[in-house]
Write a structure and sequence with these properties.
The protein contains no helices and 11 strands. It has 119 residues and is mostly beta strands.
C-alpha cells in the first residue's frame, strides 16, 4: 500500500489549503482513513479521521476549520483547511488502517506534505 499526499504550500494566516491523498497498491480494504500532522519539535498528532460510513472525528484545535472527505474514487482522501493559523504549520500525513476499522492502529502512512502559515 502506498499513500501519496499533495497540496501543501505556503499561505498567510486566514488562508486555505486543500490536501489530497491518493492510495495505490491496496491489497485489503481500509475502512478508516485519516490525516495527521507534525510540527517542528512536537509529536505527531491526529487531525481528523473518517470511517467507512462517513463518520468523522476532528481534533479540537481544528474543529470548524478543517474538513476531511473522501473522493468519488475509492482511493482518494482530502483535507480542506480553512482559516489557517501559524500554529497549523506542520508536515501533514495521510494515513490508513489497512485491513481494518478505526479500532485498530493506523498502519499505512504517506511521506508527508509541508503546510506553512505565516502571520
Amino acid at each position: 500500500v502506498q499513500l501519496a499526499e499533495s497540496g501543501g504550500g505556503s499561505v498567510q494566516a486566514g488562508g486555505s489549503l486543500r490536501l489530497s491523498c491518493v492510495a495505490s497498491g491496496y491489497t485489503y480494504s481500509s475502512y478508516c482513513k485519516g490525516w495527521f500532522r507534525q510540527a517542528p519539535g512536537k509529536e505527531r498528532e491526529e487531525v481528523a479521521r473518517i470511517e467507512t460510513d462517513g463518520d468523522t472525528t476532528y481534533a479540537d484545535s481544528v474543529k470548524g476549520r478543517f474538513i476531511i472527505s473522501k473522493g468519488n474514487a475509492k482511493n482518494t482522501l482530502y483535507l480542506q483547511m480553512n482559516n489557517l493559523q501559524p500554529e497549523d504549520t506542520a508536515v501533514y500525513y495521510c494515513a490508513a488502517v489497512v485491513g481494518g476499522y478505526c479500532d485498530r492502529p493506523f498502519n499505512s502512512w504517506g511521506q508527508g506534505t509541508q503546510g506553512t502559515v505565516s502571520s
